[in-house]
Each structure stands twice: as structure tokens, then as C-alpha cells.
Amino acid sequence: MADTRPWTSVSMPYVSGHRGDPWVAEAAEHGGSGTQKLLGVDEVAAPAMVADMLGVEPGEPVIVRHRVMFFDDHPVELTDSYYPVAIARGTKLAEPRKIRGGAVALLADLGHPPRRLREDVSARLATPDEQAALRLDAPACVLLLARVLLTDEDRPVEASVMTMIADGRRLRYELTP
Fold first, then answer.
1. Using an 8 Å Cβ cutoff, are 67 and 38 in contact?
2. Distance, CA of 152 to CA of 165 (rounded, Å)
3. What are phi and psi of 93, to 5 degrees?
4. What is the pLDDT confidence band of residue 5, given thresholds at 50, 70 and 90?
């Protein structure tokens, strides 16, 4: 990231269900341009971690949207968002194009408004594929953020796995007891 100040990310704009592109706004707050590229949309067998996050059986079909996030044309994050096929199949979530207004707003339009989220954060060394995709020197650390978005009755409707450049990145959580 071009800015030498710590980059603080807050999750709430991404899961509010409001229309818009929070990545563009976040990048602008840091003095740059935020864009994203949709790499593909597929129906796949749920990996074990994703199955656990979505409350489905491992191997059960899910829709995945693969994206890379850019700050000033530099890749800074790989994001895979998964949806149960019962919710996503036949909707814009399963189409290989950008979703106008965002996936969370679309989920709300489909009757699955965001009610709660759960995030797990970890760090590890980047894999060779991640090093190449994020243009990192070896060795390099990445932050992993695994987010589950839940709707009414705590039903999981989206599981996102984000692999972020760790250098200069900070995640902020503001909680109301």
C-alpha cells in the first residue's frame, strides 16, 4: 500500500446491507483509488472450513465469487465469498459479473438482511500462489479474515475468506456491550 500510515479496516461498512462500494470509500479515506476485479463465479463443493462457516455438509454445493482488491492498481487482498446454493442459485450472486450495490444489499433484497456477523482473524506465511497474486516478496506474512454473515434465526448466508497483505494493516473492532 502506498500510504506509510497504518491501514485500519473496519468491517461494518461491508456488512451493513447499504448499497454502494465500501472498498472504494475505504481506499479514498487512505488517499487512493480502490477497485476490484471479479476473477470468477463458480458452483463448487464446499471446503471443510466453508461448510462449517455456512452450516452445510462438507462437499455440499455452494456458489463462490473470487475477487482481487486493488489499491492504486496494486493487489492488496484476495477475497472468496461463498453462498448456499439454496440462496444463490438463479440469482445475481451466481452470475459472473459485478453486483450493483453489493452482495450484502442483494442478500437483503432477497429476504436475508444482515443481523449479525462473526469474524476469525489469523496470520500466516503467504503461499507461493498468494505471493504471486499479491506481488509479495518471499517470505511474507498475510492476514486471514474469515467472516460469516448471519440473517434471521442466526442462519448463515455468506462466508467470506479474505487474504490480505499484512504489512501496515490493522483491523479495528468497535463493540457495543
1. yes
2. 33
3. -60, -30
4. low
DSSP-derived 3-state class of residue 10: strand
Dihedrals φ, ψ of 88, to 5°? -95, -35
**What residues contact residue 29 under an 8 Å CB cut-off, 6+ apart?**
none
User: For residue 4, what is its C-alpha cell?
Assistant: 506509510
Give the Cα separation of 173 and 35 in Å (integer).
Answer: 24
Reading across the β-sheet that carries 141-150, which strands appear in turn? 34-45, 61-71, 74-84, 156-165, 141-150, 116-125
- Give phi and psi for 154, each to the nearest 5: 55, 35
Instruction: Give the per-residue pLDDT at 33.
Output: 78
CA distance 67 to 36: 7
Predicted structure pTM score: 0.86
Q: Estimate to the nearest angstrom the gap between the alpha carbon of 8 and the chain centroid.
A: 16
Alpha-helical (H) ranges within the chain are 12-15, 22-29, 48-54, 85-88, 103-109, 128-134
Chain position carrying cell 450493483: 100
Mean pLDDT, residues 150-172 taken together: 91
Whether the pLDDT of residue 1 is over 50: the answer is no
Lowest mean pLDDT across 17-26, 42-51, 56-65, 124-133 = 17-26
**Confidence band, pLDDT 50/70/90 cuts, at residue 3:** very low
